[in-house]
Amino acid sequence: MSGYGCEKCMDTGYVLKRQDGYDISVKCECYEKLMYRRRLRRSGISAEMQKKGFKDFECRGTDVLEQAKTKAVGYYRRFLNIENSRHNSIILCGQVGAGKTHLGMAVCNNLLNVCHVEVVYMAYRNAITEIKQAVTDKEDYYAATEPYRRARVLYIDDLLKGKPTEADLNILYELINYRYMHNKPMIISTEKLPDELIDFDEAVGSRIIEMCRGNIVVLQGKELNYRLYSQKES
């Protein structure tokens, strides 16, 4: 056994084909699967989160959740048409336990698998902590932030969870502003409502709201908390 997933191309994604007396490089039949595995590996999405899809998102007969699901599905289906527009992002905000992360991950997984779009996952609190630890070293800081700045699509999960510090704000502004200025799409889940994002920091909040215009999903009400719902049903 060679250890390669594909013996034909040896996991390069390309094979040589004889044409008009010359050897030319063409895509192997495994190319799309190989690219998907690479996108998935670079995404930072855990194996458990890779299972999240729209089919298993429970709306529980609630109109608000049905509408949120419809909005998220519509976003991923239109993504390739709106990617280069000013309003190319989506935000899922509000009630704890309403399934914001599930919907966000479903969008990511469909972009990765169906649209062949590279996505990078950013768990907000963990990522900010790691970046702050590297802030005094220019090279380390660049290495820590570059994947989030450059990603074709960035998913920020649980934005502003906890009590953000001034250092958190500086890092967040730099990241959001870079993506805003370079028109790079984001998927965001947060407990903060749109007005609360603006109140927290107008520069950060206004950029996010502008990029997500038309794709702002607001979930409000404890009845949407699936954890509480599950307890009542058991």
Automatic annotation (TrEMBL):
GO terms for biological process: DNA replication. It comes from the Bacteria. Signal peptide: none annotated. The keyword 4Fe-4S does not apply. Keywords: DNA replication. The keyword Signal does not apply. CDD domains: AAA. Residues 83-208 form the Chromosomal replication initiator protein DnaA ATPAse domain. InterPro entries: Chromosome_initiator_DnaA-like (IPR020591), DnaA_dom (IPR013317), P-loop_NTPase (IPR027417). Belongs to the DnaA family. This is Chromosomal replication initiator protein DnaA ATPAse domain-containing protein.
